[in-house]
Amino acid sequence: MSYDAVETTWTTETTSAGLPIALVTGATGGIGRAVVEDLARDHRVIAVGRNTGKLRELAEISSNVRPVEADLLDFDALPRLVEGLEDLDVLVHAAAIADRFPIAEATPQAWRAQLELNVMVPAEITRAALPALRAVRGTVVLINSGAGFTASGGNAIYAASKFALRAFGDALRQEVEPDGIRVSSVHPGPTDTAMLRGIRESAGKEYAAEEYIQPSSVASAVRTVVDATDDVQLTTVSVRPRAEQKG
Question: Which of 16, 17, 45 is nearest to 33 (CA)?
Fold first, then answer.
């Protein structure tokens, strides 16, 4: 895990000083990047990703963005992402993989890869971040999926990981309620991302970006969760395309 490959700093002289702090994983993906761009308007954002070039692009968006290049599967190093943070207002888990396998071809390695990144990584980062979240009654946002509600043939591993992520969010919400921490699961439908394009094209299906949800629309849903009034928490948010996809 590297904190130096792409580094910016915040000082009391910068415009970001005094703003609430957000940490976003999967920041170089379609949804993660859109969330970073939106939150950076009024948050200091720690943008965690693995693509150095895209991280450098994020650094150019705003002085409020601090890119961090990290291997999220290095579990021993994950607590370093929040090391030194006395408070954390928003934690958004957007990192995920969605490789598709029929059950007959789903090896233990395939199961492990998706369960580790899609479930265990959010769980471990959240665990490490709890003291900083408690300090400011922060908000945890889990970017889930429509697959977190309904499984389909050929998609058992991804759906199982998203069902598990929903279970994690529901349990976490109960456990941190006394601390005033809010926990939300945001479930986007098909979204115009490189991940979806790869899935569609590998299955030999046409890809028409205009038919899918835009990442900025998912970011708007996250913004609604973050900006909810103090008396509520938006526990489950489904973001669906205007026209449901067939096949």
Answer: 45
Residue 25 sits at φ, ψ, to 5 deg, of -90, 165
Number of C-alpha atoms within 13 angstroms, CB side, residue 159?
A: 15
Task: State the CATH number of the domain containing residue 161.
Answer: 3.40.50.720
**Residue 5 located in a structural domain:** no
State how far the Cα of 66 lies from the Cα of 11, in Å rounded to an integer: 12
Residue 241 has a pLDDT of 86
Answer yes or no: is 2 within a domain: no
Among 166, 92, 163, 160, residue whose Cα is nearest residue 125: 92
Does residue 53 sit within a domain?
yes
Q: How confident is the model at residue 200, as a pLDDT?
A: 60
Split into its structural domains, the chain has a count of: 1
In a domain, residue 247? The reply is no
Instruction: Render pLDDT for 8-44 as a digit per residue (tens, 0 to 9).
Output: 444 434 445 689 999 999 999 999 999 999 999 999 9
DSSP 8-class letter at 104: G
- Please report which confidence band the pLDDT of residue 206 belongs to, taking 50, 70 and 90 as the band edges: confident
